[in-house]
Amino acid sequence: MNIQPEQKQGRVPSASTPAMPESVALPISGAVAERVGGDLQRRLLDARLYWCQKNRAHTGQRDEKEGWLAEEEGLHDAALGRERVDLIRLCYPSQVERYRLGFHDGQALLLIPLAAMKQHHFYGGAVPRSPHNSK
User: Fold this and answer.
1) What is the distance between the alpha carbons of residues 104 and 110, in angstroms, rounded to a whole number?
2) Which of 43, 107, 100 is nearest to 73 (CA)?
3) Is the pLDDT of residue 128 over 60?
4) Dihedral angle of Cα 7, 10, 11, 17, to the nearest 10 degrees
5) Contact 112, 128 (CB under 8 A)
6) Would residue 7 count as lying in a domain?
């Protein structure tokens, strides 16, 4: 989401809030992956981002497109460890819940590898194979 300078300074957008930009959210970068802990987390977040992008591309309604974009922004913010719900509420009030959904999904996806590591330790290094831990 590109926030305009006047929105950064705290001005309230006009009654006709502009549409969210149609920019394509990029997959989680390598730098972010290092910050969030590695390959599994990056693959999980990338899959969720791709799902949002795919759904956004197949809907024709502006509100629905903005909703998918808000979820993507929430996922990115979770990976970066920042929450911008106040900014979303100010600029795109109709999409706050979708942003929160993406943010909380992103946080949950970041916790999955931690649970897998605990399971790995509990089983003495042997973890049952699943599609999520095999390469």
Assistant:
1) 10
2) 100
3) no
4) 50
5) no
6) no
User: What pLDDT, on the 0 to 100 scale, is given for residue 42?
Assistant: 85
Give pTM, 2 decimals. Answer: 0.62
Helix (H, G, I), strand (E, B) or coil at 101: helix
pLDDT at residue 90, rounded to an integer: 93
| 107-133 exposure pattern, b = at least 16 Cβ within 10 A, e = fewer | bebbeebeeeeeeeeeeeeeeeeeeee
**18 inside domain:** no
**Could you tell me the residue range of the domain that residue 62 belongs to?**
26-122
Please give the tally of structural domains in the chain.
1
**Confidence (pLDDT) at 95:** 94
Does residue 21 form part of some domain? no
- Give 7-74 as a DSSP string: HHTTPPPPSSPPPPP-PPPPPPPHHHHHHHTSHHHHHHHHHHHHHHHHHHHT---HHHHHHHHHHHHH
